[in-house]
Design goal:
With 482 residues, this protein is mainly beta. The protein folds into three domains: 171 residues, no CATH class; 172 residues, Sandwich (Jelly Rolls); 126 residues. It is 12% helix and 49% strand. The protein has four helices and 36 strands. The protein has a 17-stranded mixed sheet that branches. Strand 10 and strand 11 form a beta hairpin. Helix 1 packs antiparallel against helix 4.
Length: 482
């Protein structure tokens, strides 16, 4: 990992001497959508080009396409916070994506097959719009959560829209429209007009998580999808947030992790989960009294089961444990998160050699990455002095900055890197690099050369990588030992 960081710094240093006349690059997160790959293989097509493996932090703009295989899951986060979860076996086209004014949003998505779940913030300007088109209908919203499924039944395309919060106006391609309110659904068949009214959604198993006032938390389901009590993070399909309570309508069997924080000291986190079906409560589980101090980040887990009739069962919450970063809440198995990067690499390699096929993960924080990169600058053979090295991580990728001094000239160099997995291999890609007046052909050659070196150096990574998670302040590489 340290060698990888040094290679990335070479790119930054090479850029630094030419950052005198910045010029616009491609799509930026502030005006586009950021992709998070949660599981399996997800491909992206940019600007009508060829499909290639999508990575965590990839940027999508109008005209781009995302598709997932039968295990793939991804989430698109738009610049004002709305999200679209792309489920396995789905394909969506970002037909148009634009900002209107300071906070307005105009989005048109085409979904050709599969299932998506959208959490759309209340649109703030009159000219804002969010539309999701399918082969049989168009869903129009101004702030709601809804699920859209496109499938082929007996040779005909059928679209089903289910509303979680607010309402969705569904217009059929063959005429007519239906207003789908919370808790109802509508089906639009190929060649048929929209029904006159929606129908109630059938009762399904639900989990409702809550905590004491002042306690914030995120729920991570067995698939690695998360939903937070603030409503800013909604990756789990049919996850509704109200008054600090998280209700999950897409329940799967397995261990649910909960990461807790507090805005002020609390004597009892007050965490509980209620499993129900419709008006029937099946199980209620409470975490024993647990104090949470400011700055604490605490994780606990609860195992949920579903009976054949849909009845929800749950065991006790596990003993709470202190974790060092939000990435720790999403990992499982043996986790390597302490010591220097060299020490972490040595320990992970030894564990992999002695334990084949075991779940494992390595977590790196901003401080870890910055310290390793700054320490590696002395190994660089470059015609520049490098200082003020800093690396930060957020949902849009890994961001490197450094001060490069060549003779009397000193400039700030910048670069962005995204990461992911494909067929068990760790992938790293330079998303953006501003070389100012350097010709594009030279820039492309430099990026290609460094990305080849990155690929060579990640080939020996000791995990079959299933996922790379980038979160504010940290990244986690997860998988099983080779």
């Amino acid at each position: 990992m340290k060698k990888i960081l040094v290679l990335l710094l070479i790119v930054i240093v090479a850029a630094g001497a030419f950052l005198f006349f910045p010029r616009p690059g491609g799509a930026q997160a502030a005006n586009a959508a950021t992709l998070a790959v949660l599981r399996g293989d997800v491909d992206a097509q940019h600007g009508g080009g060829v499909f290639a493996p999508a990575l965590d932090g990839d940027i999508l703009a109008g005209g781009d396409v995302v598709r997932s295989n039968q295990q793939g899951r991804a989430v698109l986060t738009f610049f004002e916070g709305s999200t679209l979860s792309v489920e396995p076996g789905s394909e969506v086209h970002v037909t148009s994506l634009a900002r209107t004014g300071a906070s307005g949003l105009q989005v048109t998505i085409e979904q050709t097959i599969g299932r998506t779940w959208a959490s759309v913030n209340k649109l703030s300007t009159p000219d804002s719009r969010f539309e999701l088109k399918t082969p049989t209908s168009t869903a129009i919203v101004r702030g709601t959560t809804f699920e859209t499924t496109v499938e082929v039944v007996n040779g005909q395309t059928v679209t089903t829209v289910k509303t979680g919060e607010g309402e969705v106006v569904v217009q059929a391609a063959s005429g007519g429209e239906t207003t789908v309110t919370a808790g109802t659904q509508v089906q639009v068949r190929q060649g048929q007009p929209a029904p006159a009214a929606p129908s109630p959604q059938p009762p399904t198993p639900r989990l409702r998580f809550s905590a004491a006032p002042g306690v914030g938390f995120s729920v991570i389901d067995p698939r690695g999808l998360a939903c937070g009590s603030t409503g800013a993070l909604r990756q789990i399909p049919r996850c509704d947030v109200a008054g600090g309570t998280v209700t999950i309508g897409d329940v799967v069997t397995g261990a649910f992790s909960v990461a807790l924080t507090a805005a002020a000291p609390v004597a009892d986190a007050g965490l509980q989960v209620v499993g129900s079906r419709g008006d029937t409560t099946d199980v209620t589980v409470r975490l024993p009294v647990r104090a949470v101090a400011i700055g604490d980040l605490v994780r606990t887990t609860v195992t949920v089961t579903l009976a054949p009739d849909g009845k929800v069962g749950a065991g006790a919450f596990s003993a709470p444990e202190q974790i060092s970063s939000v990435c720790g809440a999403e990992t499982s198995g043996r986790v390597f998160s302490s010591g220097t990067l060299d020490e972490r690499a040595t320990a992970m390699n030894a564990f992999a050699a002695a334990n084949k096929g075991q779940a494992a993960a390595v977590i790196l924080t901003n401080a870890d990455l910055t310290a390793a990169a700054a320490g590696g600058t002395k190994d660089l053979q470059a015609p520049a002095t490098i200082s003020n090295v800093a690396i930060t991580v957020d949902n849009a990728g890994l961001h490197l900055t450094a001060q490069a001094t060549v003779g009397p000239i000193s400039v700030t160099a910048n670069g962005d890197v995204i990461a992911g997995a494909s067929n068990g291999k760790l992938l790293l890609k330079i998303r953006s690099l501003d070389l100012g007046i350097v010709p594009s052909a030279v820039k492309d050659q430099l990026i290609a050369a460094v990305e080849k070196q990155l690929a060579d150096n990640t080939a020996g990574f000791p995990l079959n990588v299933s996922r790379v998670a980038m979160r504010p302040g940290c990244l986690a590489v997860m998988g099983t030992t080779r």
